[in-house]
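Anyone up for a design puzzle?
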């Protein structure tokens, strides 16, 4: 009887492992989406090499998807239209809560640090060099689900006793960091919240460092996450993570993609962002 039961359990485990592996083999393609931190042409140049790298490593077609806003990436994963996604820290936290997102890797900056800083910028030729000088001026957040473009500066403004809707003459959401930076450069906006990582990525292409004043810099924010839908087979998620970490040895690809590399991530790495969400007053 004991032998029969043991044989049954062994067979069950083998079947379970086989079914997981078989499920992975049945997946013919994966959809990779990225939050729109820049225009579609810039995002294509940055992320197409990553998608091709994943295809080669996984032996599965990887479709690169661009969407209009951060919420669309979260919703896409929630309804399983998106399998893998590049999220900002706050959008990852939202996706983990609503869409079973599971962080695989965290983005590194060009110094190998898994994080970046929020910044507030104004045009260099303006006299806007302090937060006080921005009273009555025009202001841009990026996206409601952006960390450095909305969450972090909102918490900072709240601590200063500032209500953006009352303090600034006009408040908009630009839709992305590139749009915010270019709008300030062109003088269409007086100030914008963005981050040093996306700012650096556009240097020499869309703008120069001396085009701007940086009037505030935040504390270090944990880096963006590449996450997979939690319902993907575990062995496939591990292969995706390993493939992304292998990019650290492909310096030319990282340079083309304007990425500093990746480090293995866990969900608790983003607990500090959850605290910021609470501090902002979100439910």
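Challenge accepted. My sequence:
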């Amino acid at each position: 009887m004991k032998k029969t039961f043991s044989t049954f359990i062994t067979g069950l485990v083998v079947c379970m492992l086989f079914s997981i592996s078989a499920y992975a083999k049945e997946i013919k393609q994966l959809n990779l989406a990225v939050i729109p931190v820049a225009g579609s042409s810039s995002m294509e140049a940055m992320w197409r090499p990553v998608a091709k790298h994943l295809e080669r490593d996984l032996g599965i077609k990887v479709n690169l998807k661009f969407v209009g806003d951060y919420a669309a990436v979260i919703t896409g994963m929630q309804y399983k239209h998106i399998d893998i996604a590049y999220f900002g820290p706050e959008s990852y936290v939202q996706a983990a809560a609503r869409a079973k997102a599971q962080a695989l890797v965290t983005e590194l900056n060009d110094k190998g640090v898994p994080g970046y800083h929020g910044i507030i910028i104004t045009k260099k030729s303006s006299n806007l060099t302090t937060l006080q000088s921005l009273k009555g001026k025009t202001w841009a957040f990026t996206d409601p689900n952006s960390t450095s473009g909305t969450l972090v500066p909102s918490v900072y403004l709240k601590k200063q006793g500032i209500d953006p809707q009352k303090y600034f003459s006009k408040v908009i959401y630009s839709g992305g960091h590139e749009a915010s930076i270019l709008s300030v450069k062109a003088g269409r906006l007086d100030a914008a919240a963005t981050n040093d990582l996306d700012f650096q990525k556009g240097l020499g292409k869309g703008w120069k460092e001396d085009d701007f004043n940086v009037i505030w810099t935040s504390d270090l924010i944990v880096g963006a996450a590449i996450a997979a839908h939690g319902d993907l087979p575990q062995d496939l998620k591990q292969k995706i993570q390993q493939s992304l970490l292998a990019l650290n040895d492909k310096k030319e690809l990282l340079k083309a993609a304007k990425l500093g590399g990746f480090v293995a991530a866990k969900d608790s790495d983003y607990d500090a962002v959850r605290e910021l969400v609470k501090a902002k007053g979100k439910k």
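A detail worth pointing out: The chain has eleven helices and eleven strands.
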